Amino acid sequence: MIVEKDFRDFKVIYDGYWTRFRSKSYDWDNRCRFEEIMRLPSLPECARYCWKLLMFRRRPQEVWESVVLLLPLLSQDEIQSFKHNGDRLFDAQREGYVIVIYTWGEDQRDKLKQKLHRIGFTSVPWRRGCKAFEQRFGPWRTWFKYELSL
Question: What pTM, to 2 d.p., does this model score?
Fold first, then answer.
């Protein structure tokens, strides 16, 4: 069962695993929408622009402390969408938790990463796309080789 709640500047959606925070002013879903990923004949163009910043946490309390720092960025449209799995209780001791912040394009990714560093998030790795894309099209670092300068 999906639970959705509107707040003044953003929406919160819980699907039983992820808690998603989305800006109301940003049309994230329609930028890269497809019916079923495995039916795609080729990597969609939107995969070129979609980036994830990952923040790993050990306890639910750390997740919520991080969310408190991220919400002002969401309200100011500096972050358009992020999610976390900090509400889940099974196997948390072994795996920990993750906050995933979505960005669009390298410029937004790099600016947001710098801003996160300034407010205290020092280790924020990034990656492209989703694992279902990788199952079909191989490791994300090979999708657009000529663009990556790591």
Answer: 0.82
